[in-house]
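R.M. (postdoc): so does anyone remember the format we settled on? I'll just put the structure tokens first.
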């Protein structure tokens, strides 16, 4: 009786909604999912509409980019939170049967919000994988199976409870959802040693456009290639990833060194550019550049260069490497701390040293809280000249709260072919750049902050990759182009070649084969040839 009453309430809501052609649409969807699911839990308990008190919290809680929660942004007409793989399978079957458009979210970190909002396909509903977070670690086989809703932090923690010398080379942000993270490549502090998470993915379970659950053998090597770095939301819904574990030492070393312009920051940063991709591949040194106050006058500001390092080894060997390759940073023993790898995951995730590792189990826990921001990405193949860096610092001083972060490549990234998986940014890349502007709620200058990211992006044009100017698909950027209702392959190449270079054409071919009607689509999804 309660279930029928709940369905009635939902139908009453949808009678006034533009989404449903009739009051029976939602009831048909619920019944269809129930029929096609293996789990006996009533589907109604996993479905939330805007008139449900939990709708807003479910929509908002994992969202990283808060500007896509503003009232003018289209919201899903309902949210479905599956409890079982067959729920996801049934949702695809039923959405296709009734002509419903969907979006899929595993963690909510999409920089353009494409996993939970839609500009071109409205109305729509959201499949949120938050309840699908099982993690099965097999130390004997050195593998881990992970459901898409699990976070990096949860995976790191679960592995650490089974072994102190195993890990996975995934992202530095601990609250990222695994499902979407690996579909874009997934870099972390071990990319120079072990490559990307996608390079280490050896199997997966996916719901395809026909509603079938397929593993690697069933989907075939073309589709398995495409989902490892070809971006989320184009080929199906990833249910599980199987990832190869990598060996890590029992003791690693971390350090955090800060320099300002007044301390010779520009020359030190210029040297970082020259060595960060060539230094010992056990060493990862991230450079984060921010604006901070200087002196006693609150209006005086300067640039702070922060060097976060994680070394897969002890202090003694690290200091020898740094003295030989990067003495300008003047790294000393007191700057360094030895710890376990799992503790270093907290550090590189920007938690304070000493934070209990159990924080990794807090699903929404992140040292970087959700914010209003706009980001863009680049790849550099040569060092940015000192005179150009001076201009970059000046641009940063014009903005309220900017960040320009550089991620070093080299090492294993140089040895993997750019066509091994769709992620193509390999040999010859010195570092990736992330430009970001943050602002506070109520700030009336949001457009100016967004335009600042475009201004600094344009400024660095002469110093970054060309033909194409490369970009990281997990740092989605709709400035590069977007699919509209009438999808054009020519227009899609404008952004597709930046994310995937020559791999874009193969992705289009695979999309045409596995999803010719473009059921899985969004503003930057891979288009099929038939459209």
């Amino acid at each position: 009786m309660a279930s029928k009453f709940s369905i009635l309430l939902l139908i009453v809501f949808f009678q006034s909604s533009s989404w449903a052609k009739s009051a029976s649409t939602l009831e048909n969807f619920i019944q269809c999912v129930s029929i096609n699911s293996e789990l006996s839990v009533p589907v109604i308990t996993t479905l939330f509409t805007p008139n449900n008190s939990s709708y807003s919290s479910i929509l908002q809680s994992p969202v990283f980019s808060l500007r896509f929660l503003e009232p003018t942004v289209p919201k899903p007409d309902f949210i479905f939170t599956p409890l079982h793989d067959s729920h996801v399978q049934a949702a695809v079957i039923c959405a296709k049967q009734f002509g419903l458009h969907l979006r899929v979210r595993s963690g909510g970190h999409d920089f353009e919000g494409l996993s939970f909002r839609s500009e071109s396909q409205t109305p729509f509903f959201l499949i949120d994988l938050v309840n699908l977070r099982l993690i099965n670690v097999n130390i004997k086989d050195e593998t881990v199976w992970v459901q898409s809703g699990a976070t990096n932090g949860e995976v790191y923690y679960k592995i650490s409870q089974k072994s102190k010398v195993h890990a996975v080379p995934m992202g530095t942000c601990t609250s990222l959802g695994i499902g979407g993270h690996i579909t874009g490549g997934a870099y972390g502090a071990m990319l120079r040693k072990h490559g990307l998470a996608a390079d280490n993915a050896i199997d997966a379970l996916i719901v395809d456009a026909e509603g079938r659950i397929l593993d690697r053998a069933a989907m075939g090597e073309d589709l398995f290639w495409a989902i490892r770095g070809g971006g989320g939301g184009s080929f199906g819904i990833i249910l599980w990833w199987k990832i190869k574990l990598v060996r890590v030492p029992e003791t690693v070393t971390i350090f955090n060194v800060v320099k300002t312009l007044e301390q010779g920051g520009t020359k030190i940063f210029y040297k970082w550019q020259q060595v960060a991709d060539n230094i010992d591949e056990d060493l990862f040194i991230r450079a984060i550049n921010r604006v901070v106050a200087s002196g006693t006058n609150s209006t005086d500001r300067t640039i702070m260069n922060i060097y976060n390092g994680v070394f897969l080894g002890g202090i003694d060997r690290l200091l020898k490497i740094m003295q030989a390759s990067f003495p300008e940073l003047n790294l000393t023993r007191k700057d360094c701390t030895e710890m376990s790898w799992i503790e270093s995951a907290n550090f590189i995730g920007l938690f304070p040293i000493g934070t209990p590792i159990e924080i990794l189990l807090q699903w929404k826990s992140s040292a970087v809280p959700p914010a209003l921001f706009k980001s863009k990405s680049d790849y550099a193949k040569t060092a940015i000249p000192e005179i150009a860096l001076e201009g970059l610092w000046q641009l940063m001083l014009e903005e309220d709260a900017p960040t320009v972060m550089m991620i070093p490549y080299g090492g294993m990234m140089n040895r993997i072919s750019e066509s091994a998986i769709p992620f193509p940014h390999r040999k010859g890349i010195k570092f990736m750049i992330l430009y970001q502007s943050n602002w506070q709620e109520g700030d009336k200058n949001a457009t100016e902050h967004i335009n600042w990211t475009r201004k600094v992006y344009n400024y660095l044009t002469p110093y970054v990759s060309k033909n194409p100017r490369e970009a990281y698909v997990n740092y989605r950027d709709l400035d590069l182009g977007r699919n509209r209702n009438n999808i054009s392959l020519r227009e899609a190449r404008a952004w597709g070649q930046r994310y995937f270079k020559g791999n874009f054409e193969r992705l289009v071919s695979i999309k045409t084969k596995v999803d010719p009607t473009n059921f899985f689509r969004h503003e930057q999804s891979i288009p099929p040839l038939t459209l």
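R.M.: ...and that's the designed sequence above, right after the tokens. Also worth knowing: DSSP finds 17 helices and 18 strands in the chain. Confidence is low (pLDDT under 50) at residues 1-23.
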